[in-house]
């Protein structure tokens, strides 16, 4: 395939700085790498944290963000034998807990550009008949919530609360719950998000902006009133993390996924001990989790609610994200 020498990219040059449209060189793959012509890339809250330098993990600068890129392999290194030119592939974050992991759109340039590098062993293998724009959000949001549900230990017929259910991750978490036979309680704010969550299979919805007692309302949403067996906390503020331990049922699991800047976990030790509550972190997913999460998508059980905008509109997407005005996921088209 013909590969150009330069490409359009959206670049952050300093921590907390603006996103700038630039023409930059197209990178060349190393021996164990592939070059993917990114067609579409989902936009994740992690991308906002990266450009603002919110986390204690040092971020590359200048930075091309993005880690939900879906596209076509156009070049590969000489050691790559199990993926071919023309194959569909997804560039995502590397497997969790790997030492010195290369994190797309954080420690290495990511998918807010037309051509991006990925390690051949870690790019997601996508079927040729898949919609690249529709699958892009699954490469982070989908894998992340699928892994979190596995970590919760929830089984078919049990109840799980999804905090932040109306966002990009939450909208997929609701669908994974439905596909796995788990009853979901969506927790979020606003009528638009209520409507979307109910349409995606939420068995109940608690609007934290209208509720006088979120803890009581979440417990009441379960048939026995004891609260959900698991809680997936996708929030971008600290309060919901503290609150989750109050309404999860005894022997339940609170799975922490969201990463609000500077936040801490706090829960009463006595309550956690006598009620045998488990607090669990969950971070992206490994290659097996990726394959399983994508299988739900290819079988038509998962469909990310998303809106496509041009790559050059990325700055306005982050403005909407900061204002908590995005229902579902935003996906950028790198051709415009």
Automatic annotation (TrEMBL):
<feature type="domain" description="Enoyl reductase (ER)">
    <location>
        <begin position="13"/>
        <end position="332"/>
    </location>
</feature>
<protein>
    <recommendedName>
        <fullName>alcohol dehydrogenase</fullName>
        <ecNumber>1.1.1.1</ecNumber>
    </recommendedName>
</protein>
<dbReference type="InterPro" id="IPR011032">
    <property type="entry name" value="GroES-like_sf"/>
</dbReference>
<keyword id="KW-0479">Metal-binding</keyword>
<dbReference type="InterPro" id="IPR020843">
    <property type="entry name" value="ER"/>
</dbReference>
<comment type="similarity">
    <text>Belongs to the zinc-containing alcohol dehydrogenase family.</text>
</comment>
<dbReference type="InterPro" id="IPR036291">
    <property type="entry name" value="NAD(P)-bd_dom_sf"/>
</dbReference>
<dbReference type="InterPro" id="IPR002328">
    <property type="entry name" value="ADH_Zn_CS"/>
</dbReference>
<keyword id="KW-0520">NAD</keyword>
<dbReference type="InterPro" id="IPR013154">
    <property type="entry name" value="ADH-like_N"/>
</dbReference>
<keyword id="KW-0862">Zinc</keyword>
<dbReference type="InterPro" id="IPR013149">
    <property type="entry name" value="ADH-like_C"/>
</dbReference>
<dbReference type="Pfam" id="PF08240">
    <property type="entry name" value="ADH_N"/>
</dbReference>
<keyword id="KW-0560">Oxidoreductase</keyword>
<dbReference type="Pfam" id="PF00107">
    <property type="entry name" value="ADH_zinc_N"/>
</dbReference>
């Amino acid at each position: 395939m013909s590969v150009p020498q330069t490409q359009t990219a959206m670049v952050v040059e300093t921590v907390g700085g603006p996103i700038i449209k630039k023409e930059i060189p197209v990178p060349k793959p190393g021996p164990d790498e592939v070059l993917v012509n990114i067609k579409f890339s989902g936009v994740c809250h992690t991308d906002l944290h990266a450009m603002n330098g919110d986390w204690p993990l040092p971020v590359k600068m200048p930075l091309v963000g993005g880690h939900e890129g879906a596209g076509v392999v156009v070049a590969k290194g000489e050691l790559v034998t199990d993926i071919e030119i023309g194959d569909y592939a997804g560039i995502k974050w590397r497997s969790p807990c790997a030492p010195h992991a290369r994190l797309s759109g954080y420690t290495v340039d990511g998918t807010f550009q037309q051509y991006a590098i990925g390690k051949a062993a870690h790019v997601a293998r996508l079927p040729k008949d898949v919609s690249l724009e529709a699958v892009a959000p699954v490469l982070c949001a989908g894998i992340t919530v699928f892994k979190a549900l596995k970590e919760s230990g929830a089984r078919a017929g049990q109840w799980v609360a999804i905090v932040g259910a109306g966002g990009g991750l939450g909208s997929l978490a609701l669908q994974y719950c439905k596909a796995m036979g788990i009853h979901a309680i969506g927790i979020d704010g606003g009528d638009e998000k209520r409507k979307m969550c109910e349409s995606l299979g939420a068995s109940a919805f608690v609007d934290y902006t209208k509720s006088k007692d979120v803890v009581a309302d979440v417990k009441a949403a379960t048939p026995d009133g004891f609260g959900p067996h698991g809680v997936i906390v996708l929030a971008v503020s600290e309060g919901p993390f503290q609150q989750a331990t109050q309404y999860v049922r005894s022997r339940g699991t609170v799975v922490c996924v969201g990463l609000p800047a500077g936040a801490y976990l706090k829960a009463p030790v006595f309550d956690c001990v006598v009620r045998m509550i488990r607090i669990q972190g969950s971070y992206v997913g490994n290659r097996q989790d990726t394959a399983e999460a994508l299988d739900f998508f290819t079988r038509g059980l998962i469909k990310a609610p998303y809106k496509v905008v041009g790559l050059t509109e990325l700055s306005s997407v982050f403005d909407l994200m900061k204002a908590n005005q995005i229902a579902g996921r935003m996906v950028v088209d790198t051709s415009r």
